[in-house]
Amino acid sequence: MKLAGVWNQRLDGASVRPLTHDDDALIYQFQASHPEYFAHFQDHPVTRQEAIQDVTDIPLNAQPEQKAYLGIFQDGKLQVLVDLIIDYPLPSLVWLGMWLPAKTVTTEQSAAYYASLVETLKAAGAVQLQLSVFMGDRQMKQFWEDRGLAAMQTTALVKGDRVANVTIYQDKF
User: Fold this and answer.
1) 145 - beta bridge partners?
2) pLDDT of 25-80, one tens digit each?
3) I need a labelling partner for 45 at 20 to 30 A (CA). Which of 17, 36, 161, 173 fits?
4) What phi, psi does 70 have (nearest 5°)?
């Protein structure tokens, strides 16, 4: 399934396309404009290498073809960076590794984009989406709870010598 193409059918006024290393400058610029996000788990601003590494990074036991690294665009501008791992950690589950809206995207717009993603995933046979929220990120915690996601567990995320506490949320379709 070409997720971006199917998702495009459910979006009004925006489009989705895969992001590749051809988009490295855009990805870095976009991520660098969100220092508060990266401050949750690292003690420095995101570097270009860290940003572009996301294009192909996959978790342990995932395959490259499970990765969907996408951008939602409106009027030619990146609105939301979306990192998905399909059928992970189990079949019919989707891991949302990053949902990073531009600062100009309203909560209502972000919610509409997410609702269209859920409809796309349901049509593809997914039954659940999971994601993590950093403990200090009150804005995204509220956003996901307002979408009806339920907190499942709290755990520690280790990245290098840094540890961040996260809450795992799930959305059962």
Assistant:
1) none
2) 999 999 999 998 887 777 788 999 999 999 999 999 999 999 999 999 999 999 99
3) 17
4) -125, 155
